[in-house]
Structure formats: C-alpha cells, structure tokens
Amino acid sequence: MSEGKETIGVIGVGWVGLVTASCFAELGHPVVARDIVPEKVAALSAGETTIHEPGLDELLARNAERLTFTTDMGELLERARLLFVCVDTPPTRSGDADLSRVRAVVEGLPEDGGHVLIMKSTVPAGTGEAIRRDRPGLAYVSCPEFLKEGSAVADFMHPDRVVIGADGGDEAAADALARLYAPLGGEIVRTDVASAEMIKLASNAFLATKISFVNEIANVCEEVGADVGEVARGMGLDQRIGPAFLRAGIGYGGSCFPKDVSALKMLAGNTGYHFQLLNAVIEVNELQKRRVVQKLLGRLDSLVGKRVALLGLAFKPQTDDMREASSLVLAARLQGEGATVSAYDPVAADAARELLDGVELCDSALDALDGADAAVLVTEWPEFAELDWAEAAGRMARPLLIDGRNFLDPEPLQAAGFEYEGIGRATADSPAPASAD
Ligand code: UGA
Fold first, then answer.
1. From 222, 322, 378, 415, which residue has the greatest number of CB atoms within 10 Å?
2. Whose CA is nearest to atom 7 of ligand 1?
C-alpha cells in the first residue's frame, strides 16, 4: 500500500503537525504522529479531527490506515528516522519565542539512533546552531512552514517554495528531505540553517508590513476621498509590488504574524539592533483594530446602551482559530464604550465563548443583527455575501454596517437601506472617522 515509502515521524500534532502528517500520508508514506495530550491522540485515533481545516477530514479518513497517532515517543523513534518537529513556540510576555517545548523534544531524542531532526516550528535564528552545538550526534535540518490556516492542505500540496537549511555534515539529511518534497513541485531553496530560520521570520514580517502599509494607505484614502481597493489594484500590477496581501481591513491576527513580528523585533533587539520599522507595523495594527470604534462613534455619537453586532469572530475565514483575532480587541473596546455586543461566527463560536466575556453569541447572522444599532463585519465568511441584507435592515434598530474587510458590495446594501462604510473605501456616505487617538 505504501510502496516502500519511508516512514515519517511527526512530533506535535497541532495545526502544522496534523496537516504535515495527513499530507505525507496522502503522498503514500506511513506516518507516526506523537503528541503529549492523550485526549487529542485518542480523538485522532478514533477518526475525529481536532481542528477546522478545509480538506483535512477527507485526508484523515482516506489515509487512516497509514496514520498512527500515539503519545509514545519510543514508538515514534523506533519506526521513523525523519522527525518533523511541529510543536508550538508561543510568545512569552516579553515577546520572545518560548522555546521550552522545542527544548523538551530535543532533549528526549537519542543522538545515536540515526534520526534526522527537521525543525518545522518557527524558531529564532540561531536556535538550530545552539541545538547542533548541544546535540552534535543529531542530524539537523531547518525546514520552515509557510502554510496558511484555511488553505493549509492546498498550501502543503502546492508550495511556492520549500526551504531546506542545513550546515556542514548534514547534507545527506537535507538531500533526503529534498527528495521527500520533490513530488510537490515547488522550488527547493537549499541554504544554511540560520538563513532558513531568517527566511521564515522575514517572510511573515514582510507580509505583516505589507498589511500595515496598505492599512495606513486606506486611512489616508479616507481623508482624500480615494478608494484603497483601486489604489491596491493599481499598485499590485507593478510586478515589484505584487497584488497579494494588499487588502486593507481591521488588522492582521492569528497565531503567526503577531507572534513572528514580535519575535523578529526581539531577536534583533537581543543583538542590540533596534528594528524600528517593525515597531510601526505593530502599532499600526493595534490602532487599526480600534479604528472601527472611532467610525461608530463618528456616526452614533455615543455607544452607551447601543447594541453592536459582530459578523465573524475568527481571525480569518475558513478557520475557528481565535488567536489574536481582531474581534477580541474590538468587542472589549465596544463594551468599554458602554455598548452591548452580539456576535455570530459560522464555526468559531465554541472557540470564542471562553474568550469573549459578556458577548451574546448567536446561532445566525440575522439573530445577531436583531435590534442592533450597528453591525461590524469582522471576518469575511462567504455566507455574509449571501445574507438577505434587506431582511437584515428590517431587523436592525439602525441599519448601519461597518465593513471591516471591504468584503461586501456597497450598492445593494445601500439600496436595502443600509448606511455602509468600509475601510479606506470611497462610498457616498462615508464621513471621515473621528481621530483615532
Ligand atoms: C501566515 C502566513 O501567511 C503563512 O505563510 C505562514 O506559514 C503562517 O502565517 C505561519 O507562520 O504559520 P496565517 O496566519 O494562517 O498564515 O494567515 P494569513 O492568511 O497570512 O492571514 C493573516 C492575517 O492577515 C489575517 O488576520 C488576515 O485577515 C490578515 N490579512 C491578510 C489582511 O488583513 N490583509 C491581507 O491582504 C491579507
């Protein structure tokens, strides 16, 4: 069944680990995936998916026979030589990456078993060198992950590039990894470990910079009556700029950009280098989340006693991930201004429940909009484009919509009786927001 393909070991079955495990199984490899959380291992062994990711359920079901989930490190080390380390590296309070889980894994690996440690977790540049120094008997390859939540399976199967970083003595391990990824067709970038680590952090920081840049352009567009969608389209056609990641909105969130921008800033700071630009990227993103509140205040004067509906809670569509979601800051700010907040998200309600104190979570968008004085579109779920907006207008106390993702077509909404305002979008009824500070 597996046509003699090499067994893959995966350590840490979170987003990256589970996608990596299922995709290698789909490519025909037997996979042993180990996690320390017994409940997670039990659920996956019983065929239940632990995260919401398009296409993943099908992959897990189709490849169940090739996939073993276990808590037993011994079983993994016995069966697999290539070990993908996919544990998380969350930010510490100071903004540095917390490497304790990576360290715990590395310390548990034998140096004489012929294993190859393949680092998928995002780690500061210099981590690989330190591990190689401490554990000289282990082959070490850096292979950062670039998949996006919501399209992780497709990203794995069709990578833009696969970065493989190895230092002296580990070339054979890097060759083995390159062979593993060859069927996927993306360009293989062979480099040293430190450069591979920096490619990951620099890529995420650059994408976050692009978003904060276009968000500031959007804010200026509002002042001069320009439309950021038109501006981004015109800019994006310049091949040196490119059209991707120029969508203005209420800021980036998720488990990666906020963490990695801060980790790169701290990494630079720890060497004595002040990465000035990234401070601005972070600050713009924080202010952008709050800007919607200024827009609402500009129209409603006061939010005391007003009801505001949030459409979408997850940090982006096609995921139930609430980490660093703009909705968290927004809901708290609205409540701070005296508003009551209702909300609807097609899949993130369970994940959101414990994070959103005092927010009424509804079963449908129309329920959330019922009696609301304003609505904010936070996450661009496709179902919001299909909503019966005329019915929504009738249900709201005041049909006012702030489109935090510039997702909806303003004209039909305005025809349905809505006051519509996007982010940096030229629409007939957009007054300039009150000052954000
Ligand atoms: C990001 C990177 O895109 C992946 O390449 C990387 O592998 C991943 O981080 C990681 O380091 O693990 P992800 O966080 O899943 O992926 O999500 P993105 O699709 O990049 O979106 C991040 C945030 O930026 C979202 O809140 C999204 O709404 C926002 N965004 C994105 C914008 O506001 N404007 C845009 O034009 C694009």
1. 378
2. 146
Q: Is the CB of 303 under 6 A from ligand 1?
A: no
Q: Which tokens in the block code for residue 256? A: 């990666």
SS3 118: strand
Sequence ranges of the domains in the chain? 8-191, 226-421
What is the total residue count of the chain? 437
Q: pLDDT averaged over the chain?
A: 94
Q: What is the pLDDT of residue 56?
A: 95
Which fold is adopted by the domain 226-421? Rossmann fold (3.40.50)
pTM, two decimals, is 0.92
Measured in whole angstroms, the distance separating CA 173 from the mean position of its chain's CA atoms is 30
Ligand 1 pocket: which of 153, 211, 255 to mutate (most atoms <8 Å of CB)?
Answer: 211
Angle at 431 between CA 425 and CA 433, to 5 degrees: 90
Atom index in ligand 1 nearest the CA of residue 326 equals 26
Asked if pLDDT for residue 105 goes beyond 90, the answer is yes
CA distances from 374 to 300, 370, 403 (A): 9, 10, 11
Are 8-191 and 226-421 in the same CATH fold?
yes
Structure tokens given for 29 = 């490899």
Structure tokens that stand for 169 in this block: 């003595």
Task: Inform me whether the pLDDT recorded for 1 exceeds 70.
Answer: no
- Cα 324–chain centre separation: 9
Identity of the residue numbered 267: L
pLDDT beyond 50 at 437: no
Domain 8-191 sits in which CATH superfamily? NAD(P)-binding Rossmann-like Domain (3.40.50.720)
CA of 330 to the centre of ligand 1 (A): 19
Amino acid letter, residue 228? V
